[in-house]
Fold these 2 entries.
Entry 1:
Amino acid sequence: MKNNTIIEIRDMTKTFPMGKTKFTALRGISLTLGKGEFTGLIGPSGSGKTTLLNIIGSLDSPSSGEAIVLGQSIGALSAKEAARLRKESMGFIFQSYNLLSVHTVFENVEFPLLLLKKNSAERKKMVMDALEWVGLTDKTRSKPPHLSGGECQRVAIARAMVKKPSLVLADEPTANLDAANSHNILKTMENLNRELNTTFLFATHDEKVINYLRRKIYLLDGRIDKDEVIEQETALISDHR
Amino acid sequence: MMKTALKLAYRNLIGAGLRTWLNVIVLSFSFVVIIWLKGVMVGWDLQAKTDMTNWEIGGGQYWHENYDPYDPFTLTDSHGPVPPEFGEEIAQGNMEPVLVVQGTIYPQGRMQTVAIKGINPEQDIFLLPTHKLDTVVPAVPAVIGALMARNLQLKRGDYITLRWRDKKGTFDATEIHITDIFSSNVPSVETAQVYISLETLYDMTMMHGEATLLTYRNEAKERSEVDGWVHRSKEQLTSSVDEMIKTKSVGQSVFYFILLLLAMLAIFDTQVLSIFRRQKEIGTYVALGYTRREVVGLFTVEGAMHSIFAAVVAAAYGFPFLLWQAKVGWTMPIDTSEFGMAIAQTLFPVYSVGLVLSTVAIVVVVTTIVSYWPSRKIAKMNPTEALRGRIQ
């Protein structure tokens, strides 16, 4: 695995038992992802993009093949090791924000730092920095039920970014947002990607998101259909059929 | 991780608002009621033993070997010379001989069997108003208990006929004058007892220098057995109170169990509902770096924390209530004089630090167990399904 390779997947398959049969969500997936990429897994519902995202996020493990994320083989990790990997090196952004509704904005963003046992002063500085990135420093005492959808997702981004993770996984981050908010969110994530060199991996079928991606991995029926890198004016297309 | 769990649990509980406080109030009620009731039992125990000490048994007794307080037929033979080894103690007033003889009184033409108790009028081991036995009246001065006075419609100043048998078995009778009526919480001291001067009883029965009971003041002193006499320590004499309290405690324990069960049911239901509703949140915790076991720990701590909050709330309103109860007591809603046991009409609860701490500990432990039980389900949850909010 090269030094700037964040993710390396080799011939990975994922099946789920369904009664007496099995459902194959991913078939023979192979891909690599480098540091600082702004990449999306694109495909219709049932194409396997969320399953792939979950495996990369160590929330699930492959049925066969190998998935190496940040130098660790996902299939070989214990529950404790997987939790540590997520705690130290990954951030998650979900479609429905998944904020803790009884906690304030500050407390929501602070949560990952509590797990990392940062002291109070450090936590305060890091949280305020993260909230500044997303433009919500005036909302620290607000609670999610009192925020708009866009604001909630920005809080989720701040929470994902507060510990400056190596990898951020975003599953349909704009699905519950209107166009204006979607563009704001994507712009924010793009800026963070460029400024902090954090790798972003999206699972999406939203055109608004797709237009921001610098690499597009198309999934169809559990396989990679197309892997397209957009480098400024240059388009690199490879056919994985 | 424990510190983080405590912090998060606290935030989650405070954030849940009314849901939390309703459970907390119910649980706090359990605390206060359990401590109060246990305090009443301890107070009753203490009160009964104090009353028995003050009115009936002193620091302990020696019984004549034939004496059985539950068998009046033994009274005829249960008397003997006071052992000389007790002479000094008696002279100092730290031991009092009591002679008990069977007799009969005839108030208003009725007949009532009584135990005639001869006692030193100057004694101060018992709270009995024996100094009234020194009164100069044209009959034998006697004091009786309020219970008997009420039952036989006797009052101070009444003259009644008393019949007895002397040492040789000869019947004799005289008039007694009720110089005082006393009220204690010990029915065995009041019911069917007539107290007269010991010297007078000696003259009546010709049993000079004899006694049925020897009551001493100092319970700490080492006591040895004496020929013809059986030593009864204070612990032995108050064992009936302990047995009675134990019996009552069993019933009370059932009550505690039901009370705790109801409170725990509320906690259990809250936990089950909480885990069901918060599956997405559970998935989020796992995604952010908690293991499932740690999330189980978090929910257990949350549930257990209800009991800590409840202890604080209980202290806020329970403390003044329990203090007030200790001061004014709890007056029994029914007449306790007919119970036949040493129980005052008003019971004063007695609390100890040990009582409070043990109650808190029991409730906290039980709440923790009840909170953990439904939380185990979390360990079996699939985090990817939980994140989607899919019911598992």
Note: The radius of gyration of chain B is 32 Å.
Entry 2:
Amino acid sequence: MSVLEVSDIGISFGGLVAVDGVSFAVEPGEVFSIIGPNGAGKTTLFNLVTGIYRPQRGSVALDGETITGLSPYLLVRRGMARTFQNLQIFFRMTALENVMVGCHLAERSSLLADLLGLPSVSRQNRITRTAALALLERVGLAAYADRPAGSLSYGVLKRLEIARALAANPRLLLLDEPAAGCNAVETETLDALICAIARDGVAVVLIEHDMKLVMKISNRVLVLAQGRRLAEGPPQSVRNDPAVIAAYLGDHGSREADRAQH
Amino acid sequence: MLVALLRSRLAALLLLAAIMALFPLIAPSAFYLRVAALVWIFALAALGLTILMGYAGQVSLGHAGFLGLGAYGVAIGPAHLGLPPLLSLVLAAALAGLIAYLVGRPILRLKGYYLAIATLGFGMILALVFNSESAVTGGPDGMAVARMTVLGWRITGALNWYWVSAGALLVGAWLALNLQASPSGRALRALHDSEVAAAGVGVNVAAKKLSAFVIGAVYAAFAGGLLASLNGLITPEASSFMQSIELVAMVIIGGLGSVFGAVVGAAFLVVLPQALTAFQEYEQAVLGLLIMVFMIFLPDGIVPTIRRWLLERLS
């Protein structure tokens, strides 16, 4: 069964059809990329899937269960986590605390126990701390653990968001432009990280403009243009699709995509 | 060692306890103890607002309404219902929590200015009720408050009130500090920075906001009850808009989100008017000016600024 199944989903804002009847399915352990020109509706599609917008048509199913219109915090409980295109970091906290918040769902404590500072809270804090440190380690940010998030660079924060999303132990991870603003080395690390996450059986949905990255790590690619599906398939076939080249990749994009093969 | 102490949350509590223990030794007269007791009581109310505004990032411009609920609770309980003052205090705090829960559910869906205006309206409604229900509340003249008794011990005199209010504040500060470093506290601080991201990791944003609102209300009601008992008199002034603004100012001047900051902010706004009486009719203007100067030069508030300065010097 597909982890995520989106069927005929759509929404319009004041007459502008942002996403128009898009369908796709994502399997466990797969990297599924969504590409397309700016304004194609990629992030809107993410927001529909993750419950930030309520779709006006169509449905979303997670592990076969319909989740259309559920609040984001409920979707996390069902195994869906995401990162954001425009960073959504808890800037007043340290990097470690950011990931600790990500562990929220696994934490067993009550408001009363928290207020009274019962021993169970300290125990829970230690467990959360260990888990968060391991996640920071995994995304290569262990050295930044105690630094205030507000003082970290853009590329680091992008990875911090991934660590925080992984803290929820998702079966489906949606990454919105994780490589934006990253330098070549950071993108390389990211590439390895995403592949490792997928290898663990997590379904990864990726929005990305870095064609080299997309073509290298994706199993399948969905091309959106003006809110509609333009093409879908393995990176190879999408790259050679004349409609895709005309609408999005252009000559430069094709060359970049070619380079991923070498 | 000193750095570790500055970072530790127990340090703030110990420092507060030390100041509380030492102050009576140097206080020249009972008047100073009384003012100090007022500082502890207002700090307790401000602490509730610190949890709501400083941790969870939600503005309330009607918080004095809860202060008034607690104050009128300890006044009305013994006078009209024949309840013991201490029980009245506890019931009033519980009632404030319940009202906060019922009112908070709809209004905490609002954000920023809209939430501020909604809480402002709520505070004004309560002030209006205290003002106009003369038969129960004594109207604008207020009403006398029966002496507080705890297990048969009648609390009288400045020194006794000093210890009672200091104890209440210590407990309040301890709870707030516990919350800060707990799973619930982290979730509250998270939604302060980004509600979208907090929801994105599974935080039930609406429920968390509501819990902060209820906790803040109970703190304020408790402080209000103590205030009324200490003064032996309560007027609607306690729940006025100005009082709400003063509570917000305490939290911001002391340092948003800092537990010790709430105490410093309360001290600032309780003590300064006493010190400024020399300015007579210009007292309010000078106070306002001082607040402006503090906000311009210490925009993060007194305590966080000093703390950061110390940490930089030491490391």
Note: Residues 2-314 of chain B form a domain with the ABC transporter involved in vitamin B12 uptake, BtuC fold (CATH 1.10.3470).
